Amino acid sequence: MKTATFLACTAATMTTLIQHADAHGRLIAPPHRGYIGKLPQFKDVVPINYSDNGLSAGGIGQTSGGKYGICGDPYNGVRAHETGGVYGTFPTNGAKAIGACYAPGATVDLKVQITANHKGYFQFGLCKLNAKGDKETEECFQSLAQPNGEKQWQLPPGNDFFTMQYKLPSGVTCDGDSHCVLRWWYTGWNNPGVDMWGQE
User: Fold this and answer.
1) Which of 145, 154, 100 is nearest to 124 (CA)?
2) Element (H, E) at 91
3) Mean pLDDT on 128-140
4) Domain holding 91: CATH number?
5) What is the pLDDT of residues 58-104, one digit of tens each?
6) Is residue 89 part of a domain?
7) What DSSP line would sit under 20-52, residue for residue?
8) How far apart are the first and last CA of the chain?
9) Which residue has the higher pLDDT, 21 or 78?
10) Can you give the pTM of this predicted structure?
11) How many distinct structural domains can be found in the chain?
12) Does residue 86 lie within any of the structural domains?
């Protein structure tokens, strides 16, 4: 059975129809590209990002206009977390930069650490890139669902580690020069001091 290899980018783009949140968190399992450099087995492959829990796709002002980096970077900034970026090192490091491997169609445990909870929910998406130099696009990401069919995972109160299960699509393999990117999307519900248009 072929396994699917995963690189996790974090699109902690806190968007919502009501308000935007300035929440903080990181995808722990599989480890996201900004976090992976903190793990001993990756220390010589991916640099450490000391702000890996604060990706917000450029902040409220950028995301309010519907613009955001695909993997959590500012729309008009350096795309450090996308494939080919400082933390997206698969094109140069190959399998050494893979955070996890899963079987196609498997139900997997995903683990998120929230360090500043602003309520809301999580969603996850999967993008298969066929060649080392391919880049993520919004159209590439396929929404994942939990075993019960729900796509949104409601965030309980508190700052903690949260584990949720999602089902991977069957028939998607990511071997050789291809790789899959898992994206965590956090939609927050509240941000004290900011109104629904992103104004303080």
Assistant:
1) 145
2) helix 90-93
3) 89
4) 2.70.50
5) 566 556 567 777 777 777 878 877 888 877 777 777 777 788 999 99
6) yes
7) ----EEEEEETTBTTTGGGSGGGTTTS---TTT
8) 53
9) 78
10) 0.80
11) 1
12) yes
